[in-house]
Hints:
768 residues, alpha+beta, 28 helices, 27 strands, binds ligand C2E, Beta-Lactamase, elongated, binds magnesium ion, six-stranded antiparallel β-sheet, 5 domains
Amino acid sequence: MAKNLDYSRRDSGAKVASNDDTQRLMAAGQRLAAEVSRLFTSQTDIADRHYWLETMVNHVPDYIYAKDLEGRFLIANRATVVDNGFTEMQELVGKTDYDLHPHDMVTKTAETERQVIETGSPIFGMEERAFVDKGYERWLMTSKVPLRNKQGATIGIVGVSRDISDRKKAERLMLGQARLLEMIATGTPLDKFFNELILLIEAHLPGIIGSILLLSEDGRHLLTGAAPSLDEAYNAAVHGIAIGPKAGSCGTAAWRGEPVVVADILSDPLWEDVADFVRPFGYRSCWSTPILSYQGKVLGTFALYSLKAGLPSAEQNELISMAAHLAGIAIERRQSEERIQFMAHHDALTGLPNRVLFDGRVTAALQQARITGQWVALAFLDLDNFKLINDTLGHHAGDELLRIAAGRMLACVRKSDMVVRVGGDEFIILLTGLPPDSDIVTSRLETIRAAIGAPLVLSGRTLQVSCSMGVVCYPDHGQTATELLANADSAMYRAKEVGRNNLQLFDAEMAAKARAKLLRHEELRDAVARGEFVLHYQPQMNLKTGRIFAAESLLRWQHPERGLVSPADIIPLAEETGLIVPIGDWVLNQACRQNKAWQDEGLPPIVISVNVSARQFRERNWVSRVAEALEESGLEPRYLELELTESLIMQDVGAAIATMHELQELGVHLAIDDFGTGYSSLSALKSFPVRRLKIDRSFVQDIPGDADDMAITGAIISLAQKLQIAVIAEGVETQAQVDFLRASGCHDVQGYFVSRPLIPAAFAALLA
Ligand code: C2E
Ligand code: MG
Ligand code: MG
């Protein structure tokens, strides 16, 4: 190819040569042009780039600079030069931060720069306080990288800092708001909260002073809420000012219920009357916004003062509404808390203090009396026949009566005394600072009784209401509040016993009775703890087959001194104290366990019946307790029968039937005990899911002598047969009774005729 080319070149001759020259010239020219252009552009480029770079660096508002190893400025952009107080860069070059700023501010910066130089690794995005504050606190976000020469050795640092004060400020405001909300949530006292709120706003708006005023209860005045930075004398003068159409910024804002912006206090007509007073303080503008409740009710005002005349900026306006809003939430929260506190300590109907407040007061009163030697009196007061009025005149009249009675009692006592509503128509009166004289005590309380007894009008009728009182005096009738109240209760019991409408002062006889009762309660409680109870079992027999098909479990108390105590002496006491619940639980569990044990011994299976008291039956988890007793003992439900009384069922027929159905679903059987002695409605009987009626012993015992009892017994038997309910006679002792029952169609009996209640071993022997 090259050869050909050469040849062709030679071959082309002169003509070709001239073409060649032109081409060569052109090529040379092009090369030159390119070279010149390259040269030219690169030179302009460097100069321009340098210029552009400089311009760029000087136009950014950020600080950009380089320092040598000793922290001396090597180069810096315009912002750095100017903000350090110079006009030319040369003035800054060679200086260190120590030459420019207070030492203590500089040390931390010098330290980080030293670190960058020593480690050779950069630091990015560090937040730091600016040396130059421009009249407000400034924050910078700074990055520093090592400055290296061509050989890669570190010869200083390059720093870039950006002003992030606005972001910082916004962040702080948000944090502050969060803290304020937390204070509201944790119920911080209002004055503390207000101070914090104002200090937050003031920190955010330099030169601005905040103030919170609260509307007084009468809704006509403003009271100091918080204004930590306003002059104290000024605050004192503002406290209590009347709101109105021309009452400065706040007074007017509260009056109008809308923001009032006063740009110049000294010339605004709203401030006309007080301008001379304000002048010496130097406050010039005041922008106030009402603090509103959720429903828009004015609660107070939030205002910003400035020493300069002018209108608020958009940011300031925003902060004012934010602050007013938060203050509103805080005030409302406190108000609802106060309402809750009041409700927790007072009776809603009469407004009287309740038991909670009373308990605190009585303790304090006793302590006081211990020191002064004066007496304290406590009276239980019960309105006589209140239920009757409630039932005949209606609940409204009843409520009205309670309010009237409360008002009359209050009118008779001193401020240091207390009237408390403790229940429906029951009150306690606490009298303090009394001379040690029971006549004086009773005469003061008789005054109250007389006041209550005065005629009153209810539902258009004039009537008179009497009351009963049981009274105790400290120190004679007890040392503690509990003791005094228990004794007042005994005295009240007495007052009712002797026919109501009277006052009973506690005395020794009542004290003895009360003490005995208390002792018996304690004894029974101990018996439960010590497990002194046993069960005896009485067989139930079918006369036709002679088979024992069931046993009733009967409670006995194995008393350490008194021997076996009968349930008649235990059950009423246990019901009174609530001990029937644990005792009843024990009976149920023990009876189930015993029956299962007999079955496990291989004895013929029988039904075990357990007596249930009303209080037990009403326990909310009663059904599940029965289920537990069965599960724990392993006894099949069909071998358990629960004896309920008519009165237990009749207390609340609906609820009783529901519980009975639940028990039936468990698979246990139900019997009505002592049938015929209660007042169960025969129509309701149909709907009771019971398997058995137990004819009460009182009807059986006079058979065959008493014709009436025989008639009743016969009637119960045929009623049971009609309703297809099984029937058993209790307390069967004689052959004559057995004959009568058999003839009447009752073949199941329980009584001494078959056997007395037996201890478990004896019963097992009988069964075997
Ligand atoms: P109740 O359920 O009617 O029990 C029958 C009572 O009659 C038992 O008296 C029994 O010993 C007695 N009795 C049985 N056969 C005869 C007889 O032929 N002649 C005579 N005169 N009496 C007979 P007890 O054991 O003194 O029980 C009295 C009441 O105490 C029971 O009457 C029952 O209402 C209650 N009770 C007994 N144990 C408990 C219990 O564990 N819990 C509950 N809540 N009450 C119980
Ligand atoms: Mg019974
Ligand atoms: Mg009975």
